[in-house]
């Protein structure tokens, strides 16, 4: 499958043109991705949070060209520099402090080893927090092989620490696209070892296995998928009748959704704006496009810090919520001239158009909290009459002929990925959800899950939440027998119907 | 069906003992209601808001014994005093000012008369706001006959105003149970007129028709039900295979839910506590039992006014939300000694027990925002060692032998019904939802709705919301063709999947 | 001084025309009061909170014409009906529950009787809370005689309860102007008893003594004055060199100011609007005129409940604060057409003019939280082309020829006095401040206070606050010796310089 | 005065031992500074915000040893590298965008050149924002010479840009103590040029002139001092009768105070915590020591983002405010075990003691928002049984023998200076205040200001605020003649009495 190429190291080769095209035209949503991209869009998103820890040494040798061995004599890994393991270990230990839910899961489930026999191949961001997840899976009995879902996001030191303890990791910060597929391949394609569980974030691993090693699926008990894009791919496979194993959509679990969107964005909008622009929020006129969970989080935080916020919406129900929450609902064109900050949270494209950008006032800040890099029509700003001036990392001033400057953050990509960090606690929610989904799928009795995409059972969603309550010293009330009967509930949950809105 | 009884006027008679028992044992939820109650629990709930407008004249003659005629010569109604019509008309006109959504619906739909031919029998609270609904239905082409779903809630003047304009209304404030059923019967049982639509709030009307006039259902195109209790009854019927017409559950529409629970309670908790106790909120220690929509509304308002709020929860997901929103999650017994105010919003029973009440501090205020009158074990306070002292309407001091006073509001019934008013705007949401549900069911093509219980289609839910946006001068954004295609949405909605959590 | 008049009872007689004119032209602020008013403006302000407790019996006999005796045989009082004492006693007991600071003061100071020998004549609102103050003063050794500072605000039952225990009270609800002065006179002019301390609210008592019994001031050790108006009068006297005793301005103590304005208005704006109009706050467009303490309180509360608030200001510093707190700063004329609610908190006159009123939209609510009845030009609405319709107590619809209705609350008088109640806790702050001021002045060594107007010493202001902390179970931290030295502070306070802004 | 020393360049020499000691023992507050420090404490505070812009080139040559000349041929400056001027110019231009008040002041006052003839020697942080101030002073007619008040805070590029345009600047990032005094001396001691105005931040410049060049004060019309420390020094001089020119305390102007404390800390507490620890605020238990303006800002922001905040206070009035604002008031020792974050804002010393630190839970974060580096007893943590681990810049883990980690930020120095940036807008308030104070003192008629310390006149404070209102598109209301008369105010202000609390 993988051959040497001219430069003396392995390169991913496609068996034939169709295969290559298959990878190239693989759409996240119909019509949305250009043909020139052959890995999932999310895998090349800029990703800042990890960067701060990671060395920028001059070592330009590709990890693929290095011979490395860990202290146990293993060479079954490929990382930037195995010698960074100690630093990475400390990062992992620090992360563990805020991921007590996983540590608690380790303890509760360690006796029974619910993942004994599980062989998990994983493709996620490789950070200290992921390491805590991987080491939890190992503690519960699993064997793991791991690769990165994003070419920029790997914390090299953490990858080294994992490799040092014996987890075969294939990932480094700054992979090329070829590296990306090579790593996935090395992860999956190991003599004498065959995965029976897949943990994916973005669907690239799943896709690779599907195209290159379809026979692996005969042994796989299930796929756990984390991302919007990956979930979308799975539903497409399911719809096409091509999904041959059960898959768990953990992206849409209640707990994860609330934390990824409402709670996390409530903090990251402030953080992202502050780190890039040192803006004072008090008194600023802000328009937030979209009043879904992300928009609600942004609006709450900005209003609380004294900004004057209005919103745009296409959905009358969300618009009515905005009214009741104290935000004026406007059309962007009505207010664009007065705004100090424009934030997109719609999931849509070209929400901020060149026409809007032309009418903004001097000093207006524009950023995207919503989706990929489509919401702001940044491409329209790449025109000769406008001057781009990079004033800091992730901050560009676009200068109009009359001297007006508009400040574009992260070139219109996701501010919360590019310019702020995700709190470990949020990652703990996600990682715990993933671990429970793996346990559920791996241990489910034959027949409980068909070849379809499932949401995490509400009871497990509730369990994820309950594992995180001790962080807050929160004490749950238990139903009495009489009360449980009155409510028609099991005392251990689930406590709500599936359609409950929280 | 209705016969004269000894006291010289009609009284509802049951054909046989089983029938009577049927009415008596009819449960809202299994095992919850005592056998001695023969009408829905909600129909006898105390209800204060309307009371302020309604006369307390000394006229003790029962409306059933009065001969009244309106200015058009009709006697097909039974209200307290037809002469109060003018005062009631003004109340209706004032209500119309805040119900522009219904007025707008009248205008938009008046040309086509979408309810032409509809014969609607309705059983709801009879207030100025209901009158605006009824007159909207009439304007859209319907014939209506109306009765009250609660023996206390009728605004006599409004009933008179409706009767004066020709709507047969049978209702007055302070009905007996016998009056209640007599009114329903008079409403349904009219020679030469047979209902083809039912609008119910609590299920009593539906039940009466079901038991007494089952043949009516042959002509009925659908039932629109407003209340938790009534919806529960309908689902039971459906489950038992006894539901013979389509029914629309408007209680669970998104817009109505948010307004009835989150937004309305956010205001009514303050209003209810202030009107009854003149409490200062700043610095008060408050425990809110239950962090669902009602609890969230209460907590938001109290925190905003400077109270120090903690919550109790049985559901770890809601508990985690409370943590993230800044509320300590505790067990009631842990904090009960320190609390200044205890508020229940659980939907459960005996959440505040006698043991809790015994441990409260002097001056602690206890009230129920949740459900019926079960949440606080008020019955346990009816014991010889405790003294009850009524200090104001709806306010009792319960005095312990050592002099400690606990202040119980509304005897543990719903504070928001008993001690505060519901804003007209909230009632407008409900009424508009009801009107659209009636139009939908009445005009639906054969076969769209089976003999089952349906939620309002999301698109109509969105339409209800959109009709209320002009109140806030809110301007919706429209999707461009390109954007709609990108999102895979129709430009006119619905804009969200059914499971969307808002 | 007081003679019988033709109707068979005493009436206040003025010795000569100049005297009478003196009372009539007595201005609170230059040029503001009409000549036809001879008592302080505040003494005839409408005052709702007490009203709810007070009987509306048909007994039309003037108390001045009744012969009443209490159970101890005393006739030295004049109240509506001494038989209401028991009901009044319960009201006092309920008030005591929220006035633990005064009870605590009673206990701490009772041994030493710091007011032994004090003969206090008082003129304040007579409510349950005042009764707790008076009985505290008595417990601390004082003899008291009391009268009402407002002709509407007396709780008759409370006055009866005080009279029953032996405090000579001269007050009832609904006094005439003549009654008002008669009561003051009876209070002061008692054979064999001469006041040595004055507690006044509005300055009418002080003025009466000054004009009629100037010799009393020879014995008086000090005046404690509560109101803006009274304080203004005192400063005028002082400026004119006519103040012959020390006076304490308790109106401007920090604690009282914050509670009377910021904290109290934060709650009463919601209460006043809700009780009168049942308005839903969510999404309402509100303009608040003036961003002082009252305005800040109103804005905070309304914003928290989802209103969209903008403000008007004349002072750039307050305007900048409003910006930083998230409120748009506008001119009233710029926004008047869009507003749902207009609230004045300026202390100024004609802030809302007829021109503004003409441009308001249908249904706009207008009310005054600021000052007297001058802020809204209500007089301009008394014109033939407009129709007034009283829809509830304190609520008028003013109807324009085109049918537009503007809703004016309390005829432009203070909403928080007319339409909401003042929490007992706030009254406790005031009463404790008054008690401490009396103790301070009565016990001050010769020479500490000259014939001037003083603010309460900061240390006593801090003491008032500290007496109220137990209500919140608040635990103060004590400075260590080392810390006190480092800060240059006494460990017992005062803790801040006089100019500290809090 | 300045001589060459052995290493071949000038070094500050003290004439005699007493002089040197004088500088060394110079206290900011009595007893607080160690004798080993010879410059003001604030001048060596860590200061991060500027650092991000400033190069960390390997050029280790001291600027004092470099021969540099600007493009106009001048050598009268000493900066890191004059070639960085272009980059610095861009930073100044960016800063100008958020400092429109100064630009506006330039325009309004440029015609009359109110500082014509002024020779200003300045000692402040040298940042882009200061450059805007300096260039404003020049535009208004002044000649300026400038030096840095802090050895770390200079933005080298900005210093270069100023030097390039002809302002003699003597400052670079990373000065030694000797450099510090040398720069001040070079700034003051210029042949043929004598300062007549001083702008100081910390008092070091004033002190140097006072000790070395006392004759300068004969020409100086006034000192404008910015800092708490410098103001304290001035009051000491004044008290000692040694202040020989008028001085303006701009630190205590209302506008500056509110922005430096309440509004700025409201944002910087979030920013500082996030940048250092990536903490999630939601649900965190936080104790804030001190509820002054800084504490209020911190509490407001943290509460708004879902933290559960309690406070400690020594002052009962502030404690009562905390209660009314919804914060529990506790002693630190009562809650220390449960806290996730401890923040000091007291201005006091040893507020967090070793005993408290010993009882903190694992992972507790401790930081100082208050004053210097005294509030947390960091020294007590420098003991053998504890391990310090630096995990990031400004972040240390202190590890107890049992493995417990406490996270100390900025080694207990000010978080808001060390770990977050100050928004340009806040610096604009300060700079505008300084400029107006200079204009006022320079142009005041003889005799208006004596040899004393003055607060900025309220009218100028209001003018500073009004210059910043256009940033918010805020529109002030003007008093009518009638209203001004009614209020007894001048239509142009001042609008409040001096004791007004805002």
UniProtKB/TrEMBL annotation, chains A, B, C, D:
Query: What is written in the cofactor note of this entry?
Result: Binds 1 NAD(+) per subunit.
Biological process, per Gene Ontology: one-carbon metabolic process; S-adenosylmethionine cycle
Q: Which cofactor does it need?
A: NAD(+)
Q: Which residues bind NAD(+)?
A: 292-297, 313, 416
Boundaries of each S-adenosyl-L-homocysteine hydrolase NAD binding domain copy?
A: 261-422
Q: Which residues bind substrate?
A: 127, 201, 226, 256, 260
The organism's place on the tree of life at top rank: Eukaryota
The cross-references to NCBIfam families, in alphabetical order and at most eight, read: ahcY, PRK05476.2-3
Family listed: Belongs to the adenosylhomocysteinase family.
Q: What is this protein called?
A: Adenosylhomocysteinase-like 1
Species source reads Xiphophorus maculatus
């Amino acid at each position: 499958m993988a051959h040497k190429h001219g430069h003396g190291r392995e390169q991913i080769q496609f068996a034939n043109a169709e295969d290559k095209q298959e990878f190239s035209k693989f759409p996240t949503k119909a019509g949305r991705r250009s043909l020139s991209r052959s890995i999932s869009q999310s895998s090349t998103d800029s990703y800042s949070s990890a960067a701060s820890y990671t060395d920028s040494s001059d070592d330009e040798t590709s990890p693929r060209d290095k011979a490395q061995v860990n202290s146990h004599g293993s060479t079954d890994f490929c990382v930037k520099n195995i010698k960074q393991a100690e630093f990475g270990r400390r990062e992992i230990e620090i992360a563990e402090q805020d991921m007590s839910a996983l540590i608690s899961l380790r303890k509760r489930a360690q006796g029974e080893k619910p993942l004994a026999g599980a062989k998990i191949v994983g493709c996620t961001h490789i950070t200290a927090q992921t390491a805590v997840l991987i080491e939890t899976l190992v503690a519960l009995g699993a064997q793991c092989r791991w690769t990165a879902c994003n070419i920029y996001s790997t914390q090299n030191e953490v990858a080294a620490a994992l490799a040092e303890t014996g987890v075969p990791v294939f990932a480094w910060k700054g992979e090329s696209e070829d590296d990306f597929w090579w790593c996935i391949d090395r992860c999956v394609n190991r003599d004498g070892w065959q995965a029976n569980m897949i943990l994916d974030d973005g669907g690239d691993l799943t896709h690779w296995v599907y195209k290159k090693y379809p026979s692996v699926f005969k042994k796989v008990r299930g796929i756990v998928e984390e991302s919007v894009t990956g979930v979308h791919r799975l539903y497409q496979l399911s719809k096409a009748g091509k999904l041959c194993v059960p898959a768990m959509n953990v992206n849409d679990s209640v707990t994860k959704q609330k934390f990824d969107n409402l709670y996390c964005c409530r903090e990251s909008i402030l953080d992202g704006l502050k780190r890039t622009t040192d803006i004072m929020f008090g008194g600023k006129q802000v328009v937030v496009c979209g009043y879904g969970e992300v928009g609600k989080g942004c609006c709450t935080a900005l209003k609380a810090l004294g900004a004057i916020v209005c919103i745009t919406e296409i959905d009358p129900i969300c618009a009515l919520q905005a009214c009741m929450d104290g935000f004026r609902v406007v059309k962007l064109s009505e207010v664009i001239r007065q705004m100090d900050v424009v934030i997109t949270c719609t999931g849509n494209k070209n929400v901020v158009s060149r026409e809007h950008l032309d009418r903004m006032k001097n000093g207006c800040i524009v950023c995207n909290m919503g989706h990929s890099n489509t919401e702001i029509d940044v491409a329209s700003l790449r025109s000769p009459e406008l001057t781009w001036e990079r004033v800091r990392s992730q901050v560009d001033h676009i200068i109009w002929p009359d001297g007006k400057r508009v400040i574009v953050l992260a070139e219109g990509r996701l501010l919360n990925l590019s310019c702020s960090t995700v709190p470990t606690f949020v990652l703990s929610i996600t990682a715990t959800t993933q671990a429970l989904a793996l346990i559920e799928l791996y241990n489910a009795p034959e027949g409980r899950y068909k070849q379809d995409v499932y949401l995490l059972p509400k009871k497990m969603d509730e369990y994820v939440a309950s594992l995180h309550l001790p962080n807050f010293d929160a004490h749950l009330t238990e139903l009495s027998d009489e009360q449980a009967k009155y409510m028609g509930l099991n005392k251990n949950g689930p406590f709500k119907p599936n359609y409950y809105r929280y």
